[in-house]
Amino acid sequence: MEIAGYIAQDRDGYDIADIGDTAEAARADALSNVGPWEDRDGNTVDPDHPEFGFDAKFTVLPATAALLAQVRADGGAIGWSVVDGIACTRDEAGA
To answer: For the whole prediction, is pTM greater than 0.70?
Structure first.
């Protein structure tokens, strides 16, 4: 499998929050789209906060072109898989 870009995946589920050509782009797009960060008491915190920030809520993974295309077409609430550390479609995982 070849890496064609990156996904930012919600750690609390399997939804893909955003995609990008680079890990940094996927992270930046997810940061701009998910709104303010809050701690357990509802206080707004910095997205780099170690317990409540981006890295506590999301994982950034390399992804295949097919998965990126599926996210563009269908959004991030889709079934997908990871093979050898690369996020891919279910079809690619079964191949």
So the answer is: yes
